[in-house]
Design brief:
Chain lengths: ~325, ~325
């Protein structure tokens, strides 16, 4: 007989819907390969009247968060609440952990601001906390770092972690103005209606905080990072860089220097045309990790999109179950 | 009180020595972070008289392989036997699995030829088998694929997996002859005295077999891959490619086509100057994996060297223990 795994989901936006979809699609495979039956018990939604593109027949939909996080019939809670209500998200996931549920999180802002508290709650309740979807979209960077840093000392991480900014700067490198590039990004679902958090570098700063915690076991205060916005860049800036054999890219950088001080940067930066980051275009991300033993390693993939993000959430789910 | 983990090691060459070193260096950390005591019980060596650069005081050195693989006092067996005696390696790891030891393997040729049998032995004996060091040196590609392919369908993998060939072709792209480049590679410890397996593409073919098994759950017969050697390339070939805006790189490629047939290639191939693989130089590797949900992802790092390889073996060890 199969072991039943009962799942609760917080949020049914684009990512949440894709997660529901992926769980349904893989039901048979999970049965055959792992002998488990995946059951979605309930989903917390914000607006009952919103039209959704996913089959939820037989699943309890609720507007009351406690129906999920305090529900004794749920083993694993998947949080897909997005960027709104960060404190509410924190309270929800901590409540789920305290109610003995393993938790899979995707909200990066919440993890950047309250990561210490949330990881502590997971430890104290002896529950698993997985956060792959919070950084790098479909790139399995978090679990890779957790896996690979065990005998390792990591002092430096850098790369491109914001898909929206990279998409816009890629278009500007092809002679589009900032406004044209932003319009194009919105049209392709790669920029939100209010794109401030992405283009002003806050989104990348959140991810920097999360990666630094994983790689270096350090807390960075989000207020200590002063990201530089890409909104002030013009096509002329891009051209001037090109004339010097460079390309402007949305870079993040965190380094523990020789005095053991943390140096951080988030913002547009002109990299050499020969730099591998020069070839990371559109909505792709690439994250470099420098280890004492393993040298420089890098991880590349789509940094945004419901499908890649849902795919890593499903991997987190399978990993917890195994 | 700490839980004691008793380790046996097969082989004390460059990788084996570095593994011993890394385990000793991390002893305290393993105690503090995971509450475990790592103890190396025994090491199988081939030549007792060989001088070694690693401290083995208090560790039993033996020339009899059974002292390790049949030793009831050993929990985990780490295989660092290198490319010689592939059948002996297979027998040793299967014997270790049958004697209820978890196994960490590094010998790619053995895994390419006997992978099916070895994985089956692990399954039947309900033991863990980790193989990270067999492909991509310090790149955690195997565990990443095992982790990320759970809800995923992978049809295509490609990239650069042979550090020696890539080092040689990088030098040839900088106007060295094949002979000069090979001499330089040997001097830097990146080519063996007999470099045939690397430069003729067999090494990359072994890794292709291993990756195909992990990604696509398929067996490739090594004889069905007919790798193309890089030894026939001249500086003129490199120049001719450059004039067409291309760079010759040592590529591997495996694709399940629309008819569900496997297409494989291993050998030198001219990639566009804008292709990310054009920027993978020296002893670095880069492996691309194309998934149905997650799109194209890639993993980059040093493809050879005792230190990166030992580092992923140590990660395998910690993962088994956890």
């Amino acid at each position: 007989m199969e072991k039943k795994i009962r799942i609760g989901i917080l949020g049914l936006g684009t990512v949440g819907s894709k997660v529901v979809d992926l769980i349904q699609v893989n039901k048979e495979r999970a049965k055959i390969e792992y002998g488990i039956e995946l059951e979605i018990v309930g989903i917390m939604i914000r607006d009952r009247n919103k039209k959704r593109n996913v089959a939820t027949k037989g699943i309890r939909l609720t507007e009351n968060i406690d129906d999920i996080v305090k529900n004794p019939d749920i083993d694993i809670c998947i949080e897909c609440m997005g960027g709104v209500g960060t404190e509410q998200t924190k309270n929800a996931v901590i409540m789920a952990l305290c109610n003995h549920k393993h938790v899979i999180m995707s909200s990066k802002k919440c993890l950047a601001l309250y990561g210490k508290e949330i990881f502590l709650a997971a430890k104290e309740n002896n529950r698993q906390l997985r956060i792959e979807a919070s950084v790098g979209g479909g790139i399995p960077i978090c679990s890779t770092i957790m896996h690979m840093s065990q005998g390792e000392t990591i002092k430096k991480i850098f790369g491109i972690v914001n898909a929206t900014s990279n998409y816009i700067l890629t278009a500007m490198n092809n002679d589009k103005t900032y406004e044209e590039a932003l319009t194009q990004a919105k049209k392709n679902g790669l920029a939100e209606n209010n794109p401030e958090e992405d283009v002003d570098g806050l989104d990348a700063a959140y991810k920097l905080c999360i990666l630094v915690r994983l790689c270096m076991k350090l807390d960075v205060n989000i207020n200590d990072i002063q990201p530089v916005s890409i909104t002030k860049l013009s096509v002329n800036d891009m051209k001037a860089a090109k004339e010097e054999g460079k390309i402007i890219k949305p870079i993040f950088y965190a380094n523990v220097n020789e005095k053991e001080e943390m140096e951080c940067f988030v913002g547009p930066y002109a990299v050499s045309k020969e730099n591998p980051l020069a070839f990371v275009n559109d909505n792709n991300n690439m994250i470099f990790v420098e280890g004492k033993y393993s040298g420089l390693r890098a991880f590349y993939g789509q940094g945004a999109g419901a499908s890649p993000t849902a795919s890593v959430i499903y991997d987190d789910l399978m990993d917890i179950i195994k």
